[in-house]
Design a protein that fits this description.
This protein is of the alpha+beta class. It has 15 helices and seven strands. A hairpin with a 3-residue loop joins strand 6 and strand 7. Pfam families: HATPase_c, HisKA.
Amino acid sequence: MNINTELLFTAAVSFGITRALSKFLNLPARSAPWDALLRRIWVPGVVLFVLAAIFRVKSELLNDGYWLLVFGAVATMLIRLGDYRPARTLLLAIAPFALYFAIQFLLSLLGTDIVRDYDDVFETTQGFAIFWMITFGLIARSQKKHLEAERLLREEEERNKQRIEAQNAELERLVSERTAALTQQAEELRYTLTELKTTQAQLIQAEKMASLGELTAGIAHEIQNPLNFVNNFSEVSSELLQELEEEQQKPTRDAELESELLADLKQNLQKITHHGQRASSIVRGMLEHSRASNGERHPTDLNSLCDEYLRLAYHGLRAKDKTFNATLTTHFDPNLGMVDIVTQDVGRVLLNLLTNAFYAVQQRQKLQEAGYQPTVTVSTKQGEECIELKVRDNGMGIPEEVKQKIFQPFFTTKPTGEGTGLGLSLSYDIITKGHNGTLSVESVEGQCTEFIITLPLTA
């Protein structure tokens, strides 16, 4: 190969080597200035090639000198990155090769014939330097992989630590909120209830029932209508009062108009009182259902109870997601008489099952299937020995392996923060242990789920 051509080849090789080093050491991130410098390391080689071609210089000194320049730049860069273990190893890898070129360049510069006289020695030394460089290059590559694995492990540990801290913070927040809510309830119950045991039972039950929030959302929706009436009639009454004041300030007052305004005001106040009492009645009724029971059974209209909690669960979810809509279907047995049950407990079971049903259809609705209409159905039927109550939805369905664990405590398929895993377990205990009934589930994954409650006609 012509010496000048070899110089151009050396420039190309040096460019490839420096690019490989830049990628191996991630220089753009670790040292952008050195990365920019090494990107242009081929420029001196091309310049030397052009000068040699112009002045017809054919000297190995140019090629060896250029190699020393490349090695010098690379070595300086590696020293600057001495904190990075693979960089130190690469510095050790190129040291013999750089020393070889330095000695050869120095001897050639002095004009001695040692290089030619000991050509075999120099070739052997060059081979050793190349072998040394390859060996330590592989070691550096192994070190980099090891460091990368350690970095990934540290990042994973840090992510796990952050997740644990976030979960702990969320748990602390939930405990704090629950404690504050229980404290407030305790203060209210201290002034409204006379029996300490009843108060204690209410607090314990309220703590266990995660569905209390859904009930509260339903209550808020139920009382919204009467409160809207109160607000509207209050605004109209204010306008009537203003009109009455203006009429009274006129020199010539219209007694008939004043009488009409007073009559309208009286009527509005009556409507405000009526709807205010209605809102108060709703709150009292809902609070009765939100309290923990004392375990006593009472004759209950099961059809009415199912219908009430169907609406409460639906409005509870809509309070969180205004865009959600579903079809509510009921098939109540008209011959179903009063049933002796613990009303509050069965109400909580219904609220839990219905809340899960609406959650299931909401999740399937998010898949945006063509023609899909979320539907939740509640039905009752009286048999010869028991009463059958069914809650059915056409939501996501339950996989077969999940159905085996669905009633286990703390098992939930909902994301973290959206389910406690206690709802179905407590519901199962209420029906099976508290009412001697059964609670089972049938489901087709991706199509529907149906919970079936049976209650014996005799206690």
